[in-house]
Specification:
This protein is mainly alpha-helical. 65% of the residues lie in helices and 0% in strands. It contains two helices and no strands.
């Protein structure tokens, strides 16, 4: 088994493990959009009034889990 196959299998396993969280985050982001709360996502991070939405927080955590990188 070559190292590329091992890396690909590990990446696939991380993605499968993160799938429920990815779906949940996307559903939350869509709900925020539908409720008209998506404006918080377009503010500039670090500026006064900036507040990251719950959906974006969940999305960042799920992406980190899927990619194996810290969030």
């Amino acid at each position: 088994v070559d190292s590329d196959s091992v890396r690909e299998a590990a990446a696939n396993a991380r993605l499968i493990a993160a799938a429920p969280e990815l779906l949940e985050a996307l559903e939350e982001i869509v709900a925020e959009w539908d409720a008209g709360n998506i404006g918080r996502l377009t503010a500039i991070p670090g500026t006064p009034g900036w507040e990251e939405s719950v959906g974006m927080k969940w999305a960042r955590e799920a992406i980190a889990k899927a990619t194996g990188t810290p969030s």
